[in-house]
Design a protein that fits this description.
The complex is a heterodimer of chains A (511) and B (364). Chain A is an alpha/beta fold. Chain A contains 18 helices and 22 strands. In chain A, the strands form 5 sheets. Chain A has a 6-stranded mixed sheet with strand order 6-7-8-3-9-10, with helices on both faces. A 6-stranded mixed sheet of chain A has the order 16-19-20-13-21-22, with helices on both faces. In chain A, strands 2-1-4-5 form a 4-stranded antiparallel sheet, with helices on one face. In chain A, helix 14 crosses helix 15 and helix 15 packs parallel to helix 16. Chain A is globular. Chain B folds into 2 domains: 63 residues, no CATH class; 263 residues, Orthogonal Bundle (ABC transporter involved in vitamin B12 uptake, BtuC). Chain B has a two-stranded antiparallel sheet. Chain B is globular. The two termini of chain B are 34 Å apart. The chains are: A alpha/beta (511), B mainly alpha (364). Chains A and B meet through helix 11, helix 12, strand 18 and helix 16 of A and helix 8, helix 9 and helix 15 of B. Chain B: Pfam families: BPD_transp_2 (PF02653). Chain B: It is found in: Cell membrane. Chain B: Its main location: membrane. Chain B: It comes from Nocardioides jiangsuensis.
């Protein structure tokens, strides 16, 4: 908490580090001083080079130039185990835990030599858990733990391996606001006991709340280091983006009384017969954006797939413009004007090894301009792919480039452009701006708003509460496969949403 | 320049694989105490006219087999059952043709259709099992191969007659035969009249895959089943269609020989063509021209290996090793080249985007 450590050797110094990659924003001239016993935040847009730097620090990648010092001593990591030897541990955004094992088993996995796998290990885990107030039981199964607890298991894993410097990769991305507060308590406790934390994020309010120092990365290089007290959130955002920060808010309401999508009493069971979605009732009108808020894995995926026609509901009705389409397949629904921006663009949105113009055909295999009768209209598809590249500002050398070669944001822009083609009536947008940079995010929001003005109905699923509140005309919260609350986006706060999403408060609140 | 680079990369993998396979074969020869020089002298000698004809004939049959396998491969469906489908189809076709329900060439055309139907039906069993019961087509087609061999042998005893050491079906009426085409006056063998069947099938394959909606759905499913589903492809239906199509093409494999040379189905029918087709398809990257090249290479290796025993004192079986190694190497080489190409492309994208700087930002 104090500044007395500035004269001591930095916990981690990065000096002029560079890394070149084909096709990825490389690091160049990255310089960073992390004081021991502090929380140091590393902020930057997606693609600013945060992950590359992180991988270099954790020994996953070797830098092409520059040097790294840990505790004043130059180090050369060739693998993560080298990093761990120097006391650097990493907590990944996507947990690397085996659900069917206990906390103890997960922690000792790969570190059996430290304290064995029995009581000695159990004692050590209890000691760490108590020291930092983690409240973890070594013998509990990981599958019974909540997201916040799983994250603490991940942190415990690196502490167990002797890490004093912990890198946290977007640790709050998977948490709701209440869990974020709990995490920050843990981090403060870790810091007060002499650990150094490197916190990677692009959520500026959180960064300002927890960090002692903030280093901003932009286009692969460190722009500046600041103290949270010296900058406003707005200034920080501009440092990060290098321009004005866009906002998702929609101006006037364009909602009509024409129903486009109606879902009644929808229930979906998974392959094991468990009910994952039940009693879903919702209506979306032309010109309306309906936002669904919820912690991931509470039935959003199933809801989307049931509306798109990829899974068959056990019960209930899906109507498109007053026509019962429950028994229709995905193709027929798409033909009748359903656009679909999938949650996972690599799995569901693109043929990664096919050129962009072929990706233009995907999802539109039966419609002009990419297809004529039973034949692929190559010329038509190419012209229209070119149009999307132009209108949606997809940064690519051309439409013969494979989808894989593009950055995530550009892939997403292409998908949005494709799904907006042919004037859809209904757009199902799952996390439409996940993993895209701020510029692309603003563009995608603009396109959704513009289409909404022309009468598009949108089902919006997002983990970004600001996006949900800003874009939606009405909001519903989904929890354990049920709609548990309705909110008016004009009046709701992220805290209220967060409470409803975790079930802290399930009573609907209508304005 | 760009297309040249692309073509170069496309050729790099098979050439690399052939060279490595050649080196490994030589090492095996040395290790076994044979003379690699004599081996290569025989293998690389210009084939006699008779051998050239044999190579073309063999290649046309391998080509059909490769196409049959490739249809499945293009949508990640591993039809290992081309062998069984081809045997069943050829037997059924030979039996049908011998009945002479139709006169002259009408009988030929009808028989070819029957062969395609029989091949498709046999493949259809695996497709149904996959779609309704989730049985892997790899397992079921392998099983069906074994069943096909036994079933045909059993039926052949029922309907066939003994001719020397072998049992054969009745002879196809001569009016439906497709005479061979004499390429060289001094050659005792002629080119199959039905070589054009392979050419037609290749063109059909290319048009179907690259030009039709069905072909797009099939390739999309092969690229990414999940993306295909999200785009509206009914994957189960695609599994059935492509498996039937694969079996139908497999049904053609026996036709050039049936109408050109043997005129009946006998217990000495050439075996292993279905399996070789899998290798040929892999070698040719499931591309119609690539498969043709693969078929020619395999046919060349087999034909040139025949005199190895006499001329070089080396057992011709060594060539099966070469063919096997070629396939192994080619799988690896394609992956290496694919990664290299991805890198090149990403670099090209990065360069193209770097050059003009951050031109236009945001807005639509």
């Amino acid at each position: 908490m104090t500044d007395t450590t500035t004269t001591a050797a930095a916990a981690v110094s990065v000096r002029g580090v560079g890394k070149r990659f084909p096709g990825v924003v490389a690091n160049h001239d990255v310089t960073l001083e992390v004081r021991p016993g502090t929380v140091h935040a590393l902020v930057g847009e997606n693609g600013a080079g945060k992950s590359t730097l992180m991988k270099i620090l954790y020994g996953v990648q070797k830098p092409d130039e520059g040097e790294i010092l840990v505790g004043g001593e130059t180090v050369h990591f060739s693998s993560p185990s080298d990093a761990i030897k120097h006391g650097i541990g990493m907590v990944f955004q996507h947990f690397q835990l085996a659900d069917n094992l206990t906390v103890l088993e997960n922690v000792v996995l790969g570190a059996e030599k430290l304290h064995g796998i029995g009581d000695a290990a159990r004692t050590e885990i209890r000691r760490i858990s108590d020291a930092y107030g983690f409240g973890l039981d070594p013998d509990e199964l990981v599958e019974d733990l909540g997201v916040g607890e799983r994250q603490r298991v991940e942190i415990l894993k690196v502490l167990y391996r002797g890490a004093k410097i912990i890198i946290l990769d977007e640790p709050t991305a998977v948490l709701v606001p209440q869990e974020v507060d709990a995490l920050f308590e843990n981090l403060r406790e870790l810091k007060s006991q002499g650990n150094t934390l490197l916190f990677i994020s692009h959520k500026l309010d959180e960064v300002r709340a927890i960090a002692d120092d903030i280093t901003v990365l932009r286009r692969g290089t460190t722009v500046t280091s600041v103290k949270p007290a010296d900058v406003t959130q707005h200034q920080l955002a501009e440092l990060m983006v290098g321009e004005e920060l866009p906002s998702p808010s929609t101006a006037e309401s364009t909602v009509t009384d024409r129903e486009v999508l109606e879902v009644r009493d929808l229930q979906v069971d998974d392959a094991q017969g468990r009910t994952v979605l039940s009693d879903i009732n919702l209506t979306i009108h032309a010109g309306e954006v309906l936002g669904i808020a919820g912690v991931e894995g509470n039935g959003q995926t199933e809801l989307v797939e049931a509306v798109v026609g990829m899974v068959r509901p056990t019960r209930g009705v899906v109507e498109l413009s007053d026509q019962d389409v429950t028994s229709w397949g995905t193709r027929q629904r798409r033909e009748s004007g359903v656009g679909y921006i999938p949650e996972d663009r690599h799995r569901h949105g693109l043929l990664l090894d096919a050129p962009l113009w072929e990706n233009r055909i995907l999802g539109h295999q039966t419609r002009k301009p990419s297809v004529k009768g039973g034949w692929v209209d190559k010329a038509g598809a190419r012209i229209d792919a070119q149009r999307i590249v132009h209108e949606y500002d997809v940064r690519t050398p051309g439409i013969d480039t494979t989808a894989r070669a593009l950055s995530g944001g550009n892939q997403q822009k292409f998908i949005v452009g494709r799904e907006m083609s042919g004037d859809p009536k209904l757009l199902i947008a799952s996390h439409p701006t996940r993993g895209v940079d701020v510029g692309a995010q603003a563009a995608i929001w603009d396109h959704i708003r513009e289409a909404r003005r022309r009468g598009l109905a949108v089902l919006l699923i997002s983990a970004d509460l600001d996006e949900l509140i800003g874009l939606s005309d009405s909001l519903k919260v989904i929890l354990r496969g049920r709609i548990v609350a309705d909110y008016d986006p004009q009046t709701v706060t992220p805290q209220q949403l967060g409470a409803a999403m975790t079930g802290a408060k399930t009573a609907g609140e209508e304005a | 320049m760009k297309t040249l680079q692309r073509a170069g990369l496309a050729l790099a993998a098979p050439v690399l694989a052939l060279v490595v396979a050649g080196i490994i074969t030589s090492l095996v020869l040395v290790a076994a105490g044979d003379d690699p020089a004599a081996f290569w002298e025989t293998m690389l000698a210009w084939p006699e006219n008779r051998s050239l004809v044999n190579i073309i004939n063999e290649a046309s049959v391998l080509y059909l087999s490769g196409l049959a396998a490739a249809i499945g491969f293009r949508m990640n469906l591993f039809n290992i059952g081309v062998e069984g489908q081809y045997r069943v189809a050829t037997f059924v076709a030979a039996y049908f043709a011998a009945q002479a329900f139709l006169p002259g060439y009408l009988n030929t055309v009808a028989t070819i259709l029957v062969a395609m139907l029989a091949g498709a039906a046999w493949a259809g069993i695996a497709a149904l099992l996959r779609v309704t019961r989730g049985v892997s087509e790899v397992i079921s087609t392998i099983m069906l191969n074994a069943i096909a061999v036994s079933l045909v042998a059993y039926l052949l005893r029922k309907v066939g007659s003994r001719e020397g050491q072998t049992i054969v079906t009745d002879t196809v009426p001569q009016s439906g035969w497709i005479p061979g085409i004499s390429l060289f006056p001094d050659s005792v063998t002629d080119m199959y009249g039905l070589v054009f069947l392979a050419v037609l099938a290749g063109i059909g394959f290319s048009v179907l895959l690259n030009r039709t909606r069905f072909g797009f759905d099939l390739r999309a499913t092969g690229h990414s089943e999940s993306a295909a589903v999200a785009s509206g492809v009914d994957v189960k239906r695609m599994v059935i269609y492509s498996m039937l199509l694969s079996g139908a093409v497999a049904g053609l494999i026996g036709m050039p020989n049936l109408f050109g040379v043997s005129h009946n189905y006998g217990s000495t029918i050439q075996t292993g063509i279905g399996f070789a087709g899998i290798a040929v398809a892999l070698l040719g990257r499931n591309h119609p021209l690539g498969i043709a090249a693969g078929a020619l290479i395999f046919a060349y290796l087999s034909e040139q290996a025949n005199p190895l025993g006499i001329l070089a004192g080396i057992s011709p079986e060594i060539i099966a090793v070469t063919q096997g190694v070629v396939v192994l190497c080619v799988v690896i080489a394609y992956e290496v080249v694919r990664r290299y190409r991805n890198k090149l492309e990403q670099r090209a994208v990065a360069e193209a985007l770097e050059a003009p700087g951050p031109s236009k930002e945001v807005t639509a």
